[in-house]
């Protein structure tokens, strides 16, 4: 065949699992002769891998599609697809609102993307099934190619928790874990391709049950892989942090001292209304136990302000909880009404009040992040170097605690872990010297 390869442009929104899914979709389309391009103008196919978690994220898809009109007008053969959680949630509605969209594919059926693309000659395609066979059964082998030193690896998907604000149980479906032998084989292949650090992904990753020992059991198995030096996992639910996983943070050297453990709010009344099934005190005690196992563990979290019914006093309880935990990193959001979720039906907090609370919370969280970074000055840390920095001779990598670190270092250190003494802290990164 002498045909020039067709070009695929993927734009990814939202969470790390979408980043992973985009890679897998690109690999699947690679089998159809598509190569990836980073220019939408050059593409023969454009895929938007979308996020439905908040209203703004979902609306972005429609404005992006609007911007693509001239591209489609200039190149009528251009294929436009919508994947991810907006695809799952809105399916046919996208087709109605945007006639130029050729295909809509949900996060559990994207292994069928090549087949859907072939069928486009017969008309537009929509697939938002939750097929019984897992997409990963179809997408077994990952192509052999040189990879960056860090990689995501999905081990679990979906959620059965039904927090009252969240669309995930509807868009990603019920909790499913990948069998540990598959995960181990994929990790081994990633390591052979140059990966030194994996982040295990799941919407409820610590509810993982693809190994008898749960997520701690899987981490223990992964830690035996030579050449795999660092293991992280995200996102966890406080109610699924079992004793073995807490202990692993003390015992397993490869498990990095960083944990994203969303609490969402500090008021028990709001936590109950959110259907979180834990209270503020149990969350704080859990962090105490984690810190007993690994005293320097860097904590990260997610917060929602202005959940329906949140009073100033409730919000104050969130600030108090944050003061007590001392986060190294955190993400905070104004509550966003999601159609179909229980909280959408309740009396809403004023937008101005939400904005004002978010500003106060973010000021506190960013102060804590600065303090956490400044506390690293003078310490010696492991850094996995990833790429060249902006300044000549400089390399950038991530520390064990997931802080970005700049240091003067030879380029050959890309993909290697080196010891670095931290000399200064800037707002979003640290600077250090090789030791
Ligand atoms: N509004 C605002 N934030 C939300 N999140 C989930 N659903 C909503 C919503 N409806 C946040 C939570 C979650 C993170 C991924 O997104 O904090 O942990
Ligand atoms: Fe959403 Fe709650 Fe499940 Fe997290 S645990 S994905 S916030 S329903």
Question: Which features characterize this protein?
Answer:
single chain; 435 residues; alpha/beta; Rossmann fold; Transcription Regulator spoIIAA; 4 domains; six-stranded parallel sheet; five-stranded mixed β-barrel; 15 helices; 19 strands; 35% helix; binds 5'-deoxyadenosine; binds iron/sulfur cluster
In short:
This protein is α/β, with parallel strands linked by helices and about 425 residues long. The protein is about 35% helix and about 25% strand. Helix 10 runs parallel beside helix 11 (about 245-250), helix 11 (about 245-250) packs parallel to helix 13 and helix 14 runs parallel beside helix 15.
**DSSP strand (E) fraction?**
15-25%
> How many extended strands?
19
> Any guess at the CATH architecture of the largest domain?
3-Layer(aba) Sandwich
Label the overall shape: globular
Main sheet properties: 6 strands, parallel
Question: Which ions, cofactors or small ligands are bound in this entry?
Answer: 5'-deoxyadenosine, iron/sulfur cluster
The Cα radius of gyration reads 22 Å
Number of helices: 15
Helical percentage:
25-40%
Strand order within the widest beta sheet: 2-1-3-4-5-6
The first-level CATH class of the largest domain is given as Alpha Beta
CATH homologous superfamily (4th level) name of the largest domain: Methylthiotransferase, N-terminal domain
Distance between the termini: 53 Å
| Count of structural domains | 4
What would the CATH topology of the largest domain be?
A: Rossmann fold
- Quick check: average pLDDT? 95
Residue stretches low in confidence (pLDDT < 50, at least 5 long) are none
Class from secondary-structure proportions: alpha/beta
Pfam families: Radical_SAM, TRAM, UPF0004
EC number: 2.8.4.3
Subcellular location: Cytoplasm
Domain MTTase N-terminal: 6-122
């Amino acid at each position: 065949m002498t045909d020039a390869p067709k070009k695929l442009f993927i734009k990814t929104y939202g969470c790390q699992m979408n980043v992973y899914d985009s890679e897998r979709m690109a690999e699947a389309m690679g089998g159809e002769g598509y190569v990836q391009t980073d220019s939408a103008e050059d593409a023969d196919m454009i895929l938007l891998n979308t996020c439905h978690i908040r209203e703004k994220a979902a609306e972005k898809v429609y404005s992006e599609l609007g911007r693509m009109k001239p591209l489609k007008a200039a190149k009528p053969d251009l294929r436009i697809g919508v994947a991810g959680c907006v695809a799952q949630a809105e399916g046919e509605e996208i087709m109605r609102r945007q006639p130029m969209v050729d295909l809509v594919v949900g996060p559990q059926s994207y292994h069928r993307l090549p087949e859907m693309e072939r069928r486009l000659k017969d008309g537009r395609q929509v697939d938002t099934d939750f097929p019984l066979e897992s997409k990963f059964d179809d997408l077994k082998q990952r192509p052999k190619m040189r990879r960056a030193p860090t990689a995501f690896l999905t081990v679990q998907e979906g959620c059965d928790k039904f927090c009252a604000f969240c669309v995930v149980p509807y868009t990603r479906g019920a909790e499913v874990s990948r069998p540990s032998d598959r995960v181990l084989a994929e990790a081994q292949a990633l390591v052979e391709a140059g990966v030194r650090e994996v982040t295990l992904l799941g919407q409820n990753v610590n509810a993982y049950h693809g190994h008898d020992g749960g997520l701690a059991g899987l981490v223990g198995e992964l830690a035996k892989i030579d050449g795999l030096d660092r293991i992280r996992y995200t996102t966890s639910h406080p109610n699924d942090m079992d004793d073995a996983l807490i202990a692993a943070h003390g015992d397993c050297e490869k498990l990095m001292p960083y944990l994203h453990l969303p609490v969402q709010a500090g008021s028990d009344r709001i936590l109950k209304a959110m259907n979180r099934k834990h209270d503020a005190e149990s969350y704080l005690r859990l962090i105490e136990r984690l810190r007993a196992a690994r005293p320097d563990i860097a904590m990260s979290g997610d917060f929602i302000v202005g959940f329906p019914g949140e009073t100033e006093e409730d919000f104050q309880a969130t600030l108090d909880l944050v003061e007590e935990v001392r986060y190294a990193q955190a993400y905070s959001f104004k509550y966003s009404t999601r159609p179909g979720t229980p909280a959408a039906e309740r009396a809403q907090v004023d937008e101005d009040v939400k904005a004002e609370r978010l500003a106060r919370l973010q000021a506190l969280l960013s102060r804590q992040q600065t303090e956490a970074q400044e506390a690293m000055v003078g310490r010696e840390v492991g850094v996995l170097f990833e790429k060249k920095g902006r300044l000549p001779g400089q390399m950038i990598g991530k520390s064990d605690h997931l802080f970005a670190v700049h240091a003067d270092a030879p380029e050959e250190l890309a993909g290697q872990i080196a010891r670095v003494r931290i000399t200064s802290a800037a707002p979003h990164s640290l600077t250090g010297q090789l030791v």
